Amino acid sequence: MIQIGTTTLDFSDPLTLGLALGAVLALSVLILLAIAVRRAGQSARITQEMLGHVGRLSQDVGILGDSQHTLAANIKHVSDQQAQGQERVMQTMERRLAEVNHQVAERLADNALKSARSMSDMQERMKETLTGSSEKTTKSLTELQERLATIDRAQTNIEKLSGDVLTLQDILSNKQTRGAFGEIQLTDIVGKALPADSFTLQATLSNGKRADCLVHLPNPPGPIVIDAKFPLESYEALRRAETKTEQEAALRALGTAVRTHIKAISEKYQIEGETADGAIMFLPSEAVYAELHARLPAVVREGFAARVWIVSPTTCMATLNTMRAILKDARMREQAGAIRKELGLLNADVERLTTRVGNLDRHFGQARKDVEDILISAEKAGKRSGRLHNFDFAEVTTEESPLPLAPSKS
């Protein structure tokens, strides 16, 4: 039981117990309502805050949507600009490639034409060279055949020589025929050494004497006489001599014969104002000439004193070559003007030849440079074609770079 003032509550009484339970229940409801009201205020605040966050989130979502629309528009603009740029790049590269192909084709055609002309010229020169070589070879073979035929004939002549020796001895044994033999040998030597218009055979002088050969040398010294003498009897006597006495007698006879010839030549063929103040005695035998200089030098000196020079076939050829040089010098002096003119023309020809050789060298140099340029252009064109084939635009050179893209709208 509970005593509250004047009221006594007995919990054993059902009514009291029910009231108590009702009061407790009401109190509990009040408490719960207070708690609920409190919680509802907190929830309202939270809900208000959530609504503020949701509003801001909605605004952010709207801004994000606008940004997405702007981004989509920018992406579409960039895509359009990129497509247009790629189209312009492709057009530019196609145009450049066409120009390069056209230039390469022109260069190749030009160089092909030049190469064809060069090859044609070279073939022509090679043809001329081969033709000349063939002609020279044919000529050489012909000459070789002729020389072989000459050798065969010479061998035949050698076989006949043994029989001709006896005939030659018969000729030399006769004084008149021996003189003719000397004159023939002298004529042969002079004809080989001098021009035909520079000498006269069997020339008659103003004193009525006839010289075997008169060489027309310029003054000084003037025309000079060559007379053939052959003291064969004295030489044969010396060659056959066995004892010293016979040799001395034969030497005296040979000296006497040569002195006689020297005196006759000096008196007959040294004419003042008409011939040179000297003459030449031709001995058609090297053996006689050698014997005379070896064993009779005094006679040779007497010939020098009489201005009569004794020569053999060999020394006569050397003397005549000297005369030919004198004649050539005289004719060159006479033709000095013509020679100077010819030298001027020759100098002009040499200058033209030098200029043309220089031009030819420059042409070859230009041809080499053109070939190198073609190779470089072909290499570049190949690289560009490879990049176009692979759609590799990252390595496009600066001068062929595409146009810049328009700036995107932010």
Layout of SSEs?
Blueprint: E1 2-4, E2 7-9, H1 14-173, H2 175-193, E3 199-204, E4 210-215, E5 224-228, H3 232-240, H4 244-269, E6 279-282, H5 286-295, H6 297-305, E7 308-311, H7 313-334, H8 336-390
Parallel strand pairs: 5-6, 6-7
Antiparallel strand pairs: 1-2, 3-4, 4-5
Helix pairs in contact: 1-8, 2-7, 3-4
Give structural notes:
The protein has 410 residues and is of the alpha/beta class. It has a domain of 158 residues. The chain is built from eight helices and seven strands; from the N terminus they run ββααβββααβααβαα. It has a five-stranded mixed β-sheet. Strand 1 and strand 2 form a beta hairpin. The protein is rod-shaped, with a radius of gyration of 67 Å. The C terminus is likely disordered.
